[in-house]
Amino acid sequence: MRRTTCGRFGIGHRDKKCLDFRCRLDYNRGVRSKEWIEKQRLAQKGKSRNKGKANYWYGRKHTPEELEKMRLAHKGKKRPPRSKEWCQHISEGKKGKTQGSDNHFFGKHHREDTKMAISEAHIANPKFKREGEEHWNWQGGISCENHKARNCQELKIWRRAVFQRDNWTCQECGVRGCRKYPVNAHHIKSFAEYPELRFEVSNGITLCEDCHDLRQEMPNV
Distance from the CA of 211 to the CA of which of 53, 178, 189, 199 falls in 20 to 30 A? Predict the structure, then answer.
């Protein structure tokens, strides 16, 4: 059994009542069985001491005096400029961790309701405002009505509904839509001539690019 030299007495011993920290630590290690140590290790495995109720600051808040003290302590401090070696080190550390099978979302897809929730959150967020007077490139409303209608949110919802109904498959040749063979949502009755049917799902059909071009050249086919 390992013995320590007590800083209090200057001799090698192991005493529970000794006030020296090294002695008490060595004593506790000696009386703990291997089964007890293994049980504690398994109990702590997978747990994070910095998350949830295990965190010391869980449910607590800094007082205004503490916040002001921290603000003054950090005031005027700036991070040193990033060197080329530092940037290269960070780049090498991130390589391969966010792409391919190493990505936590690899092979997964968002559900349609999740996509809609993300889309609506972006629309409601002023940061993602892309139209109207709040847009950075607003020029007084010079866009024509046709341009506004073809870039509105209702048309995007209509296009997605047509794709879901047809299972992203061309209804002419049967090809499945993908990056190599993209598909389009085509209006059966003209978008310009029938404005009342622009957002009717029954007036849409899914076509691949080749079949869509053929429909555009020969609309009566």
Answer: 199
Calculate mean pLDDT across residues 30-58. Answer: 69
In the predicted model, what is the mean pLDDT of residues 134-155? 81
- Rounded Cα gap, residues 154 and 198, in angstroms: 9
Q: Are 132 and 176 in contact (CB under 8 A)?
A: no
Upper half-sphere CA count for residue 63 (Cβ side, 13 Å): 3
* Biggest CA pair distance of the chain: 104
What are residue 152's phi and psi, to 5 degrees? -90, 165
How far from the centroid of its chain's Cα atoms is residue 178's Cα? Answer: 24
The pTM is what? 0.43
Other Cβ atoms less than 10 A from the Cβ of 181: the count is 13
> Has residue 2 got a pLDDT over 50?
no
